[in-house]
């Protein structure tokens, strides 16, 4: 290959923004550019370590659904305590997204990226050796606290380090590991139960994540700080050094990096006003805050309720109701059957996110989110029809409906809400904005996780599904009314304030 570094013009090097350097296309000696900027080793390291965090989230949260019957038996808990266990980690995510995720705007992306994994490992070990129900709730909450910090931090540390044209694919590619983790959690749960059919098997389920989590924690010490964040604070020398470490290539390109000084844009980069929580609700950012928060909240109502309690619902649908198990052996057998069914359904999360990765940078975030919400409503409606049938037809409708729901939620709202929340805010408040959106969403997740088992027992599956159908349709409507398209947009241009169109139309943020 031609020495790309040698093909750069000599003499004065023009000052550019961080994202301009990242997006710069290498050039052959004849003056033609490569079609895309090649990813460096550091960029791939950042991506893989962020993807690992999403894997742990799916693994722990969804495996809790398999572990619930065992936990219920060991600690002798009822429906309300079931709800608390299901909601504990989600409540932790809510608090962590706001209390810890927003700290990345103050202390940097890397320190919080490391700290969250240290917390995760500590609480995971505590969970494995947990002696009673109250501490079980505390440790699950602590795990959620670390995962909540990861929501905004992982997104930002990827999106602020990679080319704009591939941001959607790579951010969602990392997010896809949440679905891989969800499948891994149910598969590990099934494998552990099959190998060790006893009540204490849930401890081994969680223990399986300890060593991988420690390795990821060590790896995060070796990444570079976000140059975009350093630049937004006016630390240009450190930002230039970070870009050099980020863009190490063989042959080296670009050969020299010089960053342009960032000027104020009305947001007050690095100033107290620009970084306050009230900035999220200013006229310039209110539309972004609504778009990032409300659809995510509505999506989490369905995704976490269906996801966590799929094994419970399937146990009922398949005639294996663990609430009426006659013995420990029956309880474990029922849980194994439900875990197998949940694993099958969860595979559609992975298929859905694969399609989201392929289409996010072409079809666009908004179109996929609206389509996904409508598809979720269709899947839930299909599942609700099961109550009108019996036997194999009823089971088929439950499976088909849940599989369609899982596919459409990961094609659309589950993926796109996460992607949009980390894109629509300026750099100075991106951590707070994404953290607030994640926390607001988890209010819905906590509510549904706590209330789902209670409502399931009191009003039944069909009524719950009807309610979630309405929620999905409302999510599509809010997305349409407050839409902002960010597909392919340079992150530096997101720092420029924008106004909501009076017609409610799509607002492209500094379209290229």
Q: Strand share of the residues?
A: under 5%
CATH homologous superfamily descriptor: MFS general substrate transporter like domains
Low-confidence stretches: 1-12, 264-274, 320-327, 498-506, 508-512
SSE string: HHHHHHHHHHHHHHHHHH
Radius of gyration: 23 Å
Report the sheet with the most strands, covering strand number, pairing sense and barrel closure.
Answer: none
Query: What's the N-to-C terminus distance?
Result: 30 Å
Put simply, the count of helices is 18
The SS-based structural class is: mainly alpha
| Overall outline | globular
Describe the oligomeric state of these chains in a short phrase.
Answer: single chain
Q: What keyword list fits this structure?
A:
512 residues, 67% helix, disordered C terminus, mainly alpha, Growth Hormone, Chain: A
